[in-house]
């Protein structure tokens, strides 16, 4: 059994005594049973007398002296007319004395029943706070000398404490159950107070120079034989060793249903036997505890062996007996059981492995061992890479659109800068490592589950973690939630819901909120990828380790949360790090300078969310994400605090985090010491890249974003920032073609429209499609293509080195050599594949012609400009690779060129239209604009210019027909505002004319 850190247990449950654990006791002392003293018998005697007087003497005295105060007949009108005298007030006072006696007697009966029947905490008598407390103390003192009373009643030392204070919960709740909103608030308040008390005590110790006690080993207690009339009980054990008898439930949760040395099992808290062994929470203290494996020689070998055997049965025990036990769930994050792989129908070996779509991107062993200089951390982070790649593509498209419509400081051009050095390596690693299909399936599966549960009027279950394993998706629940909706099914036990990869394909996009936006990848374990739901953790998640290693984990978590595809609105607050990460997602990431600003911000956010949930009638954010209330969306707030907080700040964080999971707020906090008050789950990152969480049963290969790669990722986003101003990218193509007669290429590929190749023979066999796709990728990246980027584009599911090299050999042979013997497929100094200048595409020619017309010879010669623009527009035969086969060229989704081409064609058409309108050739201008619209049909600039050119013909009927055509194309969205304003200027009565034309 692995060693357990007591800090986790104590943090999870809270130290009710207000102190931290005592120093380790490596020399077990003889058992010291509490003997009943003469004082105990004196207290019991006086308690008996007091009970006799109050329960029997008071009513007897009232009956003899005052009698029954109420009239013997019921005549309300007579009572109202009667004179109010001193006797009337006496009767009212006597009536209230009788009422108080009846209430106290009821309290005594409730307390006696609870003590004698084995109920741990008796029920409340309405309105009887002080009376019930008095009754409890008297009954406790009376039964203190008995055999069983001490198991269930607090000692007389607690006299004077308020009954409300005695009913604080023993542990933070791991899952907030819908329908218990008021109880949750009470539990959260109690938990926060306990954590604050614990943290305050730790802070006082630190200020006094006291060290933190080490408690690395699991502690055990052996039930002692009876001494006289006294029998050992879980309440007394908890009172002696945990400081609070009410924590007996934690001991019970740790040991329930585990086989004892005599073969029996603990099933009820009140039924324990001498000789049984109890595993104790980590903060237990006291000389009669046995710590394993460091048991002292005083413990007999037989007892040591029994404890060792018992310890091996505890792997299934609930985490710490705290939050997980309270919720009825299992906070031990278990590795899901994988389905056996189906036997292949054809036993012949495949040329390359093909893991299932939807699982993490496969990296075969042959490739994994040789990364060609690419960052391994990003290659092993498929979901993070996919998120970053998608966000980067979106940012670059923003630049294009804003540039095209003059939104940023005038026309800046359409060519993003070509990354170099580390940025280029990181971009290639993103292209190789990304698994967009896995992100899409994860997103659709989770939203589909939420929609199905909402249709059945069921609440979302609390999910601690998600596992991606062999293409299947496993959700680990905080507690059983019944049968999942189809096509989900139960996994290895009642706390696992599983969705097979084949079934996940049934889901389509649905308009529902993301149910678990706080899921984030932490790493892999036995080829299964773990996503922890930071939003659901019942408290703080602490991360210890060296500062650099912690920073790599924090950066990975922040980057994935900021760019993932399975979340809606989200706010990630970075404290103590990550100011440079904000360009990744300025709308999601916010940076705060220090923890003081964090506490102020989160206190306000916590208050606001509690009030909003209460006003909406929801118990937690999960009930606000499905069903009729899903419009609220309840976006998560996740706090990443890299710097270790002070003891005082840790107290405040613990208070905020006590109710955080219900409010949709998660906290990941770094610590150098590994001991953070209020931490529900503890993790450690090692220098070898292992993420350890022993109490959760985890040992992961951590997902990291080291500092160098973090800087390179940020550089990619900064270079693509649409607000960079005049220093942004310029309109210079990456590759200019000699457009003169002397520059005729040896190999010419037509990509704009149907794919054609001139100058090469068509390859034979099934490899022809692969060779054509490889050449298209190289033509679209004249700066060079990394071999692994090429192989991941052609084989998204992974491929071995020998298959890739065989394809490259065939590609080299197919392309051949130039007249001087130089291979047309070469490599640059970085090992990237490049094409010779004699291999050209029509897109290269189109870019070169437009560049020469607008920035070269065409600037000074109107005739040259017109000829170049006309030649450029003739090259346009349709969209990029218009006839590409189904299922291939999926890498184009990551390419900016599919957004560049329509804008380039539109710019060419607009320039040629302007060229013709300067000479009054409106028909020629309309012809040029219509040619551009075939490739860029939604470009508003083309339609506006077409309206102007048509207006120049002075033909209202034709202009009206064009307006009607525009309205038909715009659909339900209607005309864009600028187009509508232009029509108002060119054809004021266009609305009536269009309606008349439609009616005719």
Question: End-to-end distance, in Å?
Answer: 86 Å
Approximately how much beta-strand content do the residues carry?
Answer: 5-15%
- How large is the radius of gyration? 38 Å
Biggest β-sheet description: 14 strands, mixed
Number of helices: 32
In percent, how helical is the residue content? 40-55%
InterPro entries: Bact_Kbp, BTAD, LysM_dom_sf, TPR-like_helical_dom_sf, TPR_rpt
Pfam families: BTAD
Transmembrane segments: 41-68, 88-112, 133-152
Region (Disordered): 1-30, 314-366
Summarize the structure.
Keywords: Membrane, TPR repeat, Transmembrane, Transmembrane helix, Two-component regulatory system. Residues 1-30, 314-366 are annotated as: Disordered. By secondary structure, the chain is α/β, with parallel strands linked by helices.
Q: Any overview of this molecule?
A:
- It is built from 32 helices and 22 strands.
- With 1000 residues, the protein is of the alpha/beta class.
- The strands form 4 sheets. A 14-stranded mixed sheet has the order 6-7-5-4-9-8-17-16-15-10-14-13-11-12, with helices on both faces. It has a 3-stranded antiparallel sheet with strand order 2-1-3. Strands 19-18-22 form a 3-stranded mixed sheet.
């Amino acid at each position: 059994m692995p060693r357990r850190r007591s800090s986790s247990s104590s943090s999870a449950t809270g130290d009710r005594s207000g102190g931290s654990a005592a120093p380790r006791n490596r020399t077990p002392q003889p058992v010291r049973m509490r003997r009943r003293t003469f004082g105990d018998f004196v207290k019991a005697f006086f308690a008996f007398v007091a009970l006799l007087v109050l329960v029997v003497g008071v009513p007897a005295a009232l009956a003899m002296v005052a009698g029954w105060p109420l009239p013997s007949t019921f005549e309300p009108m007579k009572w109202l007319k009667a004179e109010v005298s001193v006797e009337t007030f006496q009767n009212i006072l006597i009536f209230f004395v009788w009422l108080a006696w009846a209430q106290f007697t009821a309290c005594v009966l409730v307390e006696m029943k609870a003590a004698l029947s084995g109920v741990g905490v008796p029920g409340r008598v309405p309105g009887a706070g002080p009376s019930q407390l008095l009754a409890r103390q008297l009954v406790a003192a009376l039964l203190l000398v008995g055999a069983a009373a001490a198991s269930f009643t607090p000692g007389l030392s607690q006299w004077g404490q308020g009954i409300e204070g005695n009913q604080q919960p023993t542990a933070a709740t791991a899952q907030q159950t819908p329908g218990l909103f008021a109880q949750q608030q009470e539990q959260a308040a109690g938990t926060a107070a306990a954590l604050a008390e614990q943290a305050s005590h730790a802070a006082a110790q630190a200020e006094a120079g006291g060290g933190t006690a080490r408690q690395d080993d699991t502690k055990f207690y052996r039930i002692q034989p009876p001494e006289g009339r006294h029998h050992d009980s879980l309440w007394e054990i908890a009172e002696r060793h945990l400081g609070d008898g009410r924590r007996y439930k934690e001991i019970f949760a740790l040991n329930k249903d585990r086989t004892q040395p005599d073969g029996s099992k603990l099933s009820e808290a009140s039924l324990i036997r001498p000789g049984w062994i109890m595993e104790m929470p980590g903060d237990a203290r006291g000389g009669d505890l046995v710590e394993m494996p460091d048991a002292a020689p005083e413990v007999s070998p037989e007892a040591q062996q029994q404890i060792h055997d018992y310890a091996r049965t505890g792997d299934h025990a609930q985490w710490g007996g705290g939050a997980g036990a309270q919720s009825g769930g299992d906070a031990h994050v278990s590795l899901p059981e994988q389905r056996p792989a189906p036997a292949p129908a054809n036993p012949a070996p495949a040329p390359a492995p093909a893991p299932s779509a939807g699982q993490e991107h496969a990296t075969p062993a042959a490739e994994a061992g040789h990364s060609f200089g690419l960052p391994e951390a990003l290659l092993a982070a498929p979901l993070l890479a996919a998120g970053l790649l998608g966000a980067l593509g979106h940012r670059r498209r923003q630049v294009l659109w804003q540039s095209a419509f003059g939104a940023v400081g005038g026309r800046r051009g359409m060519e993003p800068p070509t990354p170099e050095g580390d940025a280029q390596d990181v971009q290639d690693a993103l292209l190789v490592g990304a698994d967009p299909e896995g992100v899409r399936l994860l997103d659709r599966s989770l939203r589909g589950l939420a929609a199905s549960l909402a249709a059945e009027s069921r609440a979302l279950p609390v999910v601690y973690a998600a596992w991606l394993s062999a293409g299947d998706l496993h959700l680990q629940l905080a507690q059983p939630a019944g049968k999942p909706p189809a096509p989900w099914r139960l996994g290895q036990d009642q706390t696992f819901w599983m969705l097979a990869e084949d079934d996940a394909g049934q889901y389509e996009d649905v308009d529902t909120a993301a149910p678990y936006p706080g899921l984030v990848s932490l790493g892999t374990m036995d080829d299964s990828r773990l996503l922890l739901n930071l939003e659901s953790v019942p408290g703080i998640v602490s991360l210890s380790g060296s500062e650099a290693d912690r920073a790599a984990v924090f950066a990975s978590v922040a980057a994935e949360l900021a760019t993932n595809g399975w979340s809606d609105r989200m706010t990630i607050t970075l404290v103590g790090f990550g100011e440079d990460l904000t360009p990744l997602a300025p709308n999601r990431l916010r940076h705060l300078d220090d923890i003081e600003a964090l506490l102020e911000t989160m206190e306000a956010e916590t208050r606001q969310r509690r009030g909003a949930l209460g006003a909406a009638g929801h118990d937690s954010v999960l009930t606000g994400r499905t069903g009729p209330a899903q419009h609220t969306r309840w976006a998560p707030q996740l706090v990443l605090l890299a710097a270790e907080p002070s003891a005082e700040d840790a107290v405040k964080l613990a208070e905020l985090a006590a109710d955080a999971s219900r409010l949709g707020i998660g906290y990941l906090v770094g610590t150098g010491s590994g001991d953070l008050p209020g931490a529900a789950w503890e993790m450690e990152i090692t220098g070898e890249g292992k993420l350890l969480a022993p109490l959760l049963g985890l040992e992961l290969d951590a997902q990291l974003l080291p500092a160098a790669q973090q800087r390179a990722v940020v550089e990619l986003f900064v270079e693509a920032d649409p607000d960079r101003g005049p220093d942004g990218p310029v309109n210079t193509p990456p590759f200019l073609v000699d457009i003169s007669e002397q520059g005729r290429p040896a190999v010419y590929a037509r990509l704009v429209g149907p794919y054609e190749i001139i100058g090469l023979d068509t390859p034979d066999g099934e490899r022809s499609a692969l060779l054509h796709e490889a050449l298209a990728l190289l033509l679209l990246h004249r700066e060079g293509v990394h071999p692994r980027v090429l192989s991941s584009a052609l084989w998204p599911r992974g491929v071995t080195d020998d298959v890739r090299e065989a394809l490259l050999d065939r590609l080299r042979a197919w392309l051949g050599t130039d007249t001087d013997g130089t291979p047309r497929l070469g490599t640059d100094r970085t090992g990237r594949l490049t094409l010779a200048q004699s291999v050209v595409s029509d897109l290269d020619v189109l870019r070169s012609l437009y560049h020469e017309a607008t920035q070269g010879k065409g600037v000074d010669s109107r005739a040259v400009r017109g000829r170049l623009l006309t030649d450029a527009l003739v090259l346009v035969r349709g969209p990029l690779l218009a006839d590409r086969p189904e299922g291939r060229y999926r890498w184009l989704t990551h390419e900016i060129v599919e957004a560049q081409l329509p804008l380039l064609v539109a710019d060419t058409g607009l320039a040629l239209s302007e060229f013709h309108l300067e000479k009054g050739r409106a028909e020629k201008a309309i012809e040029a604009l219509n040619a551009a619209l075939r490739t860029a049909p939604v470009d508003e600039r083309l339609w506006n210019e077409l309206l102007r050119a048509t207006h120049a013909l002075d033909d209202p009927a034709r202009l009206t027909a064009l307006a009607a055509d525009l309205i038909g194309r715009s659909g339900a969205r209607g005309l864009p505002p600028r187009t509508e304003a232009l029509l108002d200027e060119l054809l004021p009565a266009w609305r009536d004319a269009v309606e008349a034309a439609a009616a005719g």
